[in-house]
Amino acid sequence: MKTAPQFQDFPNPNPNFEDQFAYTTTHHHHDQLNGSKYFRDIFNYLMSDEDLEELTSDLHSRTASENIADLFDQFSSSAPFVDHNIKRRRKVKIYKAHEEFRLAFRTRSDLEVMDDGFKWRKYGKKKVKSSPNPRNYYKCTSEGCSVKKRVERDREDSSYVITTYEGVHNHETPSLNIHISSL
DNA sequence: CGCGTTTGACCTGCGC
DNA sequence: GCGCAGGTCAAACGCG
């Protein structure tokens, strides 16, 4: 029986997500985050059993845990990795190990910016190649905190917003308790 | 005035 | 090197 990790266990929780995903991390956080087990928990947390089942059927006839284990193995490879066998809306990307913890959400939303409890200052906007939608860059304004996030619309389905967090906050979520208590 | 956004310039890594 | 793509800087600007 799997126990879902608690919301506050994640370094950069986003109270607004309704559709996953992706995750990734770092070597120097590996130990403290308990390595791949941590990511497995994230997957279990972000994906419902139904999603895991779908992932399984998409990736041949193997079990979800086997497939996920493979995804984590890919994690240590040098090149970014995209599994196209998963149907488009369920696409999972595994980026190469980074120096910072990275967590991405893909959310169906009309709003570009969502209140995730942190204060952000926009510091850049860039048009990315092969996407009609610009990418926006934000940095956490909390003193000494170097967490960044990128926000852009899904190039394949602009009704989705992709938010990528990078880094771990060195402080608490200002209004996290409010979000949790309202669940 | 304080703080956040805008936006073109600048920087950097990578492939050729 | 050179050029491209993506990420960041920072001066100007906007707004309470």
UniProtKB/TrEMBL annotation:
Coiled-coil regions listed: none
PROSITE patterns linked: WRKY
GO cellular component: nucleus
Protein localization: Nucleus
Entry annotated with the keyword Cell wall biogenesis/degradation: no
Matches recorded under Pfam families: WRKY
Signal peptide: none
WRKY domain span: 109-174
Superkingdom, taxonomy of origin: Eukaryota
This protein's UniProt keywords: DNA-binding, Nucleus, Transcription, Transcription regulation
MF-aspect GO terms: DNA-binding transcription factor activity; sequence-specific DNA binding
UniProt name for this protein: Probable WRKY transcription factor 51
Organism encoding this protein: Sesamum indicum
Species lineage: Eukaryota, Viridiplantae, Streptophyta, Embryophyta, Tracheophyta
